[in-house]
Write a structure and sequence with these properties.
Mean pLDDT of chain B: 88
Number of strands of chain A: 4
Number of helices of chain B: 7
Radius of gyration of chain A: 33 Å
Order of helices and strands of chain A: HHEHEHHEHEHHHH
Distance between the termini of chain B: 19 Å
Strand content of chain A: 5-15%
Strand order of the largest sheet of chain A: 2-3-1-4
Low-confidence stretches of chain A: 1-10
CATH topology of chain B: Rossmann fold
Structural class of chain B: alpha/beta
Strand order of the largest sheet of chain B: 6-7-8-3-9-10
Mean pLDDT of chain A: 84
Oligomer: heterodimer
CATH architecture of chain B: 3-Layer(aba) Sandwich
Low-confidence stretches of chain B: 223-230
Structural class of chain A: alpha+beta
Strand content of chain B: 25-35%
Helix content of chain B: 25-40%
Number of strands of chain B: 10
Largest interface: A-B, 33 and 37 residues
CATH superfamily of chain B: P-loop containing nucleotide triphosphate hydrolases
């Protein structure tokens, strides 16, 4: 096309185009934020809805993380009791205990002689008289074993099998059933967390989508005029996508604040409860990677919400 | 430069806005489209930036038939066409200068350069002193001049104006027409739709009259066709 006056656009170099593309992005980012701040109440309400929708799965996630940590913590208190054969002597038992102390899977091995076992039994029960009537100590020597807490369930099972296979061992007892049940419950909670995340993610997309749809309606004139003067789809949708990104980003940050506030409110009673159990358990608080992940997740959902609104409504607006 | 060949436009509701229109417009020409309202002036103008597509015939712009132009090329086509509207379509949420800068921003020009060119365009329509005003505070005539500045700011080879004086009194109308004539005189091909045939006659240019969608007559009043000189 030979044009005397020429179109200014076609003569722009590639570098200039890239520069202007970047500067349009930057100005869209700024203008979008300015627009949100211009209607602070409306923006805050939208962000509050987003924050709540994001905070709910976020705090559920923190809850399960704490429960997982707590169940692991309880596992450290797990002990395996090795009851030896009644006729095995304390010496034999002590040598087994010595051997076991070499085992790297174990944290602590405590030997309890027949007499110690009897003393403890006396202390814990009122069978004093009955025990006195017995001709000899009926209790076997016991070895108490504390496995490392980072052992997986299978490793723990294998350990017990090995221990039970020692000839002098009558019974290797470990009560893991309740931990298995707890893990089962945790599994259900984690699965339902996925469902909750899915549902609330859709809610966030819908809320952002609706907000952007209204914004598109409000700026119909601008869209028509820019389209008349040759704006591309990308140019027109860019500010709306940034609106969605800002909503998601700020909503995500607000969600983090909500979660922190909730944890702060819960802190005192939780500490008291832990003290009651005399436990050394340290509750897990959201760290920087949690905040970043939640905020990025919110941003992504905001973007998707804006995209859905734009793809549904923007292209319907044509100059007449 | 611009050829309409047997162009017809029938809207989906059955209304036939244009019938078998053939028209040649040369580079640098200024053409008035006239006729009663509903004669098809606006429809004819809308076919050029593909705001509407004809149902029949072809439109050749710079040697290319734009009738079947793919949607994604339409923005680039429109950047080469300046448009002035009766309702001027100014955006009231931003100052005058930003309205004028809009087509340049769309074409991806550097912000500072945009401002400079927009100021030059506003200077040409005599409104540089009002660049930072809100468009709503301007008079109707001034608003239309801002609309013209915006239409010519990226120096398009073609300028379309649809009833640019529709809301103005005769004196202002004449001013606007003179202004459009000035842009034509520097080489811009201009097509102006107006129902005010007296005003068009006074401009002494080619006048194309439409009646019920048909090309009725092409008359030249006191000027050679296509001289492009005002």
């Amino acid at each position: 096309m030979a044009r005397q006056t020429g179109a200014a656009t076609s003569r722009l170099s590639r570098v200039a185009r890239l520069r202007s593309w970047t500067s349009h992005h930057i100005s869209c980012i700024k203008e979008s934020l300015t627009r949100l701040l211009k209607t602070p109440l409306a923006s805050l309400l939208t962000m509050a809805v987003l924050a709540m929708a994001l905070a709910l799965p976020g705090s559920l996630y923190m809850l399960t993380q704490n429960m997982i940590a707590l169940s692991g913590h309880w596992q450290t208190d797990t002990q395996i009791s090795l009851y030896l054969h009644e006729d095995s002597g304390d010496l034999a038992a002590e040598s087994i205990a010595l051997d076991l102390r070499q085992d790297k899977r174990l944290v602590r091995v405590q030997f309890m002689s027949r007499d110690q076992a009897l003393d403890e039994f006396r202390e814990m029960t009122d069978f004093d008289e009955a025990l006195d009537k017995l001709a000899h100590n009926p209790l076997p020597p016991v070895i108490l074993i504390y496995p490392r807490n980072d052992l997986a369930a299978e490793a723990l099972t294998r350990l017990i099998e090995e221990l039970a296979a020692i000839p002098q061992v009558e019974l290797a007892q470990l009560d893991l059933e309740w931990i298995k049940r707890l893990n089962g419950i945790l599994g259900i909670i984690q699965r339902s967390l996925l469902v909750v995340v899915g549902l609330l993610a859709i809610a966030v997309i819908l809320v952002v989508g609706n907000t952007i749809r209204l914004e598109i309606e409000n700026r119909r004139d601008e869209i028509v005029v820019t389209r008349l003067f040759g704006a591309t789809h990308a140019f027109i949708r860019r500010p709306f996508l940034y609106d969605g990104i800002w909503f998601g980003l700020l909503g995500g940050l607000l969600a983090c604040i909500l979660i922190y506030t909730a944890l702060w409110a819960l802190d005192a009673p939780v500490v008291r409860l832990i003290e009651l159990y005399n436990s050394s358990f340290q509750p897990i608080y959201p760290d920087i990677s949690f905040i970043v992940t939640l905020t990025l997740f919110g941003t992504l959902l905001g973007y998707l919400g804006a995209w859905s609104a734009v793809s549904q409504h923007l292209y319907k607006i044509e100059p007449e | 430069m611009l050829h309409f060949l047997n162009v017809g436009k029938r809207y989906t509701n059955g209304h036939e806005a244009l019938r078998n229109v053939s028209l040649n417009i040369k580079r640098g020409e200024l053409v008035f489209l006239s006729g009663h309202s509903g004669a098809g002036k606006s429809t004819l103008l809308k076919l050029i930036p593909i705001l509407e597509r004809p149902t029949q015939g072809s439109i050749i712009l710079d040697g290319a038939n734009i009738v079947r132009m793919k949607k994604r090329y339409i923005p680039l086509l429109r950047r080469n066409i300046g448009m002035v509207f009766q309702d001027h379509y100014l955006l009231f949420d931003r100052p005058v200068i930003n309205n004028v800068m809009l087509p340049l921003e769309i074409s991806g020009m550097d912000h500072r350069e945009c401002r400079k060119r927009a100021q030059a365009a506003l200077d040409k329509v005599g409104l540089l002193n009002k660049q930072n005003h809100d468009p709503i505070t301007l008079s109707t005539g001034e608003q239309q001049r801002v609309g013209i500045a915006r239409a010519v700011v990226n120096r398009p080879p073609i300028l379309l104006a649809d009833e640019p004086t529709g809301n103005l009194d005769p004196k202002l109308s004449q001013e606007i027409m003179n202004l459009l004539g000035e842009f034509n005189s520097v080489g811009v091909t201009a097509i102006i739709a107006t129902h005010d045939i007296q005003l068009a006659r006074r401009m002494r240019r080619r006048i194309v009259i439409l009646h019920q969608g048909k090309l009725l007559e092409t008359s030249i009043v006191d000027a050679a066709p296509g001289t492009g000189h005002g």
